[in-house]
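hiii so um. not sure if this is the right channel but i have a protein structure encoded as tokens and i wanna go backwards to a sequence. like what aa goes where. can anyone help
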């Protein structure tokens, strides 16, 4: 095989791999939309899902619940909903930790899929702008992931898949996911009864409580961002002093 044929073969293989990535991404987008705006939304009934997870937990233990939630996350089931049902199913303490671990497992799975399907292809075919964005995402690392987790800009599984195709490290994805989820999960633990009441019996009072919870979450976002920026400055200072 001469050099020209090898180059054509490489480009063809890259296009096929990119098509696979686009296909998986399209499936996740369709699923994410379906969970919100199609009859599938009926499956996300809080009481029904909690009952099923409790049955699973009683027969196979909390580990099975955690793995089931992680699997659901890879299918683009909303993260907030699954975090809430995990806390309700397993209780505040065990539910909190299982929700964080399930999200981390789900993130690892879809991030790894994005890395397998698209990282090399995106780097070769994405162009200078895509490479620049990918590089900036990798440089910000944990801070970028925390920001996305605390202020979601897209469904969980889709963010993970796209991040996997970037230069972001798996370690940064997992640490950022755990840190970024913690404030929201803690708020759910503390106010779980009020949140369920707001979902089941909406009223002006529950709407006010919801607004207060959002304000608390925003404060948590601000605090974590300041903490991470401080850590980043300390690391930069230590690095410059060591040279």
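sure thing!! here u go:
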């Amino acid at each position: 095989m001469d050099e020209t044929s090898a180059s054509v073969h490489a480009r063809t293989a890259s296009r096929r791999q990119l098509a696979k990535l686009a296909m998986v991404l399209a499936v996740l987008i369709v699923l994410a939309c379906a969970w919100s705006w199609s009859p599938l939304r009926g499956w996300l009934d809080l009481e029904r899902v909690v009952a099923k997870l409790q049955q699973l937990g009683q027969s196979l233990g909390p580990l099975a619940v955690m793995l089931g939630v992680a699997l659901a996350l890879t299918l683009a089931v909303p993260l907030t909903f699954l975090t809430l049902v995990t806390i309700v199913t397993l209780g505040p303490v065990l539910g909190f930790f299982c929700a964080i671990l399930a999200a981390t497992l789900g993130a690892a799975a879809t991030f790894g899929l994005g890395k397998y399907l698209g990282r090399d292809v995106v780097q070769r075919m994405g162009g200078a702008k895509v490479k620049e964005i990918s590089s900036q995402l990798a440089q910000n690392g944990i801070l970028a992931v925390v920001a996305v987790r605390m202020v979601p800009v897209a469904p969980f599984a889709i963010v993970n898949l796209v991040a996997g195709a970037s230069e972001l490290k798996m370690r940064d994805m997992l640490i950022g996911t755990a840190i970024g989820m913690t404030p929201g999960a803690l708020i759910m633990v503390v106010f779980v009864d009020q949140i369920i009441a707001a979902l089941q019996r909406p009223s002006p009072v529950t709407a006010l409580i919801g607004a207060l919870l959002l304000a608390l979450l925003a404060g948590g976002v601000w605090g974590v961002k300041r903490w991470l920026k401080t850590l980043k400055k300390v690391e930069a200072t230590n690095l410059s002093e060591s040279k």
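oh and The first helix runs from residue 3 to 37.
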